[in-house]
Specification:
alpha/beta; Rossmann fold; 2 domains; six-stranded parallel β-sheet; 15 helices; glycosyltransferase; D-inositol-3-phosphate glycosyltransferase
Length: about 425
Amino acid sequence: MRVAMISMHTSPLEQPGTGDAGGMNVYVHNIATQLARQGTTVDVFTRATRPSQGEIVEVEPGYRVVNVVAGPYEGLEKEDLPTQLAAFAGGVVQFTRANDEHYDLIHSHYWLSGQVGWLLADLAGVPLVHTGHTWAAVKNAYGVGSSESEARRICEQQLVDNAESLVVNTEDETAELARFYDVNPGKISVVSPGADTELFTPGTNRNTELARRHLGIPLHAKVVAFVGRLQDFKGPHVLLRAMGEVVRRGRVDGPLRVIICGGASGAGSSVERYREIADEEGLRRITRFLGPRPPEELVSIYQAADIVAVPSYNESFGLVAVEAQATGTPVVAAKVGGLPLAVVDGETGLLVDGHVPESWADALEQLLIDDPTRIQMGETAVEHAGRFSWAASAEQLAEVYAATLDGYVPCGAARNAGGN
């Protein structure tokens, strides 16, 4: 089987945690890697952002990234990318014709790619599989950060109505699509993401010691880490406000440290804004702001932490939570989206209702004080994270592909383009 994946706005080879690169990059890269190893040929089409990238990157046998020139290399925000949809689609068509490439189906990721994938699937007479990763109506329902446009919601409705198959991360996401997009549940398949459990492994005491020395953190400190893009929707401000409350209460013995790992993302976001919040909470001396780190370095950050916090306002799954648990670090996460699947409340970490800093302070303080429970949760977390593998995810996705092809009947112009 040959699959064309569309990931227009961000390349699977970009560094997660910076700009628009995040969990979706990790997802596309790992799922393409495993599909290729299992015998499915995958080309991932993405927008070129540097002339030095080259047109084709051979990642490994059966998995290529194709960089398509569409608009200027630099200076385009994600919000500007709809202006380049036609150019990007044209670039993909030009590549496939020039190289006589043919695909059995198109799998698009995110709504921008979905619009391109919808067109390409119709042109080629092949089915469209779509994964939204995030959804405008869901994000707007939480009222955090800048609101998503009605135009995006309409585009997503078109994709929900016209894709042959929709792939979601959890049953919770299925319910959200039913609530906000009136989707036909028969076209939805749940494929849980995985984690690289060969890379993200529990650290020995020596690993933890080395990681803390490298970060300049006292060996006997209690450490809480946040890993992700710095935007309000991911909730770093919630963690900083909560840790300010923990410090003021003064119930945790020994020094405290906070690690914020990631880069600013989205309109109006800046690292400086979160530094100011840390200052307001009296955390300047105990907080380390780190830029985005590759997975090989994230391992050490997870291992250096006593707790990893995931205070997002919504997550379709929660890759950071699973990665952290794979290293033996318990997670305190918001009880939203797919995080209740990623974190077993009371066993591998704690789930917090809402985003009130005082409630988060209660949960963080509970685990920072109770060493035996925290350590036991970390041990259980390793076992739990081991249930999520990219190889298994790819196998499930390949089954979705096969079922989609079996049931596909080309209908060309008869497809519904309404969307509102």
